Amino acid sequence: MSVDIAVVGATGLVGEALVELLDEGDFPAADIHLLASGESAGKSMPFRGRNLRVRDLAAFDFAKVKLAFFATTAEVVAEYAPRALASGCSVIDLSGSGEGSLVLPVLNAESAELAQLPVLLRAPAAAAAEVGEVLVALASCVELRSLSLTACLSASQLGREGVQELARQTAELLNARPLEPRLVDRQYAFNMLGQVGSVDACGHSAIERRIHDELVELFPGLSGQLQVSCLLAPVFFGDALSLSLRTAEPVDLAAVRQALDAADGIELIEDDYPTVIGDALGQDEIKVGRVRSGFLDPCELNLWIASDNVRKGFGLNAVKLGALLIKHYL
Amino acid sequence: MSVDIAVVGATGLVGEALVELLDEGDFPAADIHLLASGESAGKSMPFRGRNLRVRDLAAFDFAKVKLAFFATTAEVVAEYAPRALASGCSVIDLSGSGEGSLVLPVLNAESAELAQLPVLLRAPAAAAAEVGEVLVALASCVELRSLSLTACLSASQLGREGVQELARQTAELLNARPLEPRLVDRQYAFNMLGQVGSVDACGHSAIERRIHDELVELFPGLSGQLQVSCLLAPVFFGDALSLSLRTAEPVDLAAVRQALDAADGIELIEDDYPTVIGDALGQDEIKVGRVRSGFLDPCELNLWIASDNVRKGFGLNAVKLGALLIKHYL
């Protein structure tokens, strides 16, 4: 038994990863509708041995499906999610637009399991999901007091255009051509950017606020105890996260390692440190390394995380959430 | 009046910056001896309109000079600094090898001013000096409780060979040639490395320990309250530092901005964020931006720093220190 589903924003980086994940696994989808706006409609994408045509979102009748993933901007969600819900189609919103319950499957799957259909659920930002999974794994051995996160995000944070921007700027510099920043307003190649996009009146960027707010929503004890800074590294894909936790009691590093090692969806890498390129890309686990306490503070726990933000951080969590919801329909 | 000086390790990235700084300014050097070991001896470098030959360190008589900068490894300092001191030549050690007093001129210049000559003084690591200068500037308006530093270091942290490694790896990847990591044991181009070199039994890298220990030595109140993580970004030059401070009282952001703006050696960049490439390279100021408090915690202060690690972080501080010492001889 299975139901028909839709992927809205199928041609974007995250949408494409969703389609791949739905294609690979045993996801209970009978038929899948790939949707996009404007220019992207009309393309075709492979799915279960066929080439599926991407259809125009504006013309789609959501009554045809029971579940739609929205891997789009918040504006598209605001316009089309109400239509989907009105047609009886549940929505999993990856945009961070703020409606519906936020669900991280390893933490609060019951929000999906108990939902009255149709429902709108939100999937966390990739980095929030990655940090969240690690915090769930550590819950048994660490009483968390505060958390400081410096997230080195990659060009993929800006979507396909971000990846193209970095590639083009890099080629311009290496070929001694004049640099022409377009999507990013300055040299991004071989440069660390201390800010992702514009900031609000308090100085926080939208992605910093999203990660902060989502982690506090998932872990209310972090309220007032969570520091988030997002940087943009000249790297194409992946999340590279530097975490420092303060705990109520001195950290038992052996217990931390054991808890990380035992967690589904996490791979502990010891005696070396993981990187996105070497370890995380295309993988279904968050790679965690550099487990160490502070120089002098035994209640400090430092971690280094490398993860495939698109596939693992966004895609896999959303797909798991979708599978939980579909159970209701069957 | 002026004295004769030597630069040991003159052909390295930091040594070269020292020679440039000594050449530019009104440093009271009569004659300068450029020294290096092995293959680098015999090269020539421009200084005050002449081409100076780099001499072999092993054959140098330190009695010829009153001051020597050591921009070398700790091993070279261990071998040659005692010879210099025995010949009446003071030493400024940039290697972090741990002997002598640590001096950050804006903080504790008296250690140089009161020194009995000849003396061995240590200059801090670039990132420690950069953070230290910012902390000195903030001392008037912030009572610091704890500090978390994520330092995105650049290829220059590994010296000239590091810069060459990143350039070669980048070219290999862009030209679809097989990647051949040499100095770094994995793909560094377009990849964030979560660790700089090997780590000790506690999991800290040497540069993390150096930055931590030097900052605690300069600011003893940070003992047990300082978290340091060093990453290696695929960037050629510069330090990009993400700082989060916790303070005793709610942060007065206007006072913080005013204090940073008023500090010599610091440029506050408002309404935008600084980067190494666009703002810091070749500059004599630390560029500070993204001054903001926490999302919910008014006692949290976040800062973003871009600095030319070689020229500003290492070079200028060492040269200032040298000028303080030379006053004694005149």
From TrEMBL, chains A, B:
Domain Semialdehyde dehydrogenase NAD-binding: 4-115
BP GO terms, sorted: amino acid biosynthetic process
InterPro entries hit by this protein: NAD(P)-bd_dom_sf, Semialdehyde_DH_NAD-bd, Semialdhyde_DH_dimer_dom
Origin superkingdom: Bacteria
SUPFAM superfamilies: Glyceraldehyde-3-phosphate dehydrogenase-like, C-terminal domain, NAD(P)-binding Rossmann-fold domains
Gene Ontology molecular function: NAD binding; oxidoreductase activity, acting on the aldehyde or oxo group of donors, NAD or NADP as acceptor; protein dimerization activity
Entry's family note: Belongs to the aspartate-semialdehyde dehydrogenase family.
Cross-referenced PANTHER family: ASPARTATE-SEMIALDEHYDE DEHYDROGENASE, DEHYDROGENASE, PUTATIVE-RELATED
Identification of the protein by name: USG-1 protein homolog
Species lineage: Bacteria, Pseudomonadati, Pseudomonadota, Gammaproteobacteria, Pseudomonadales
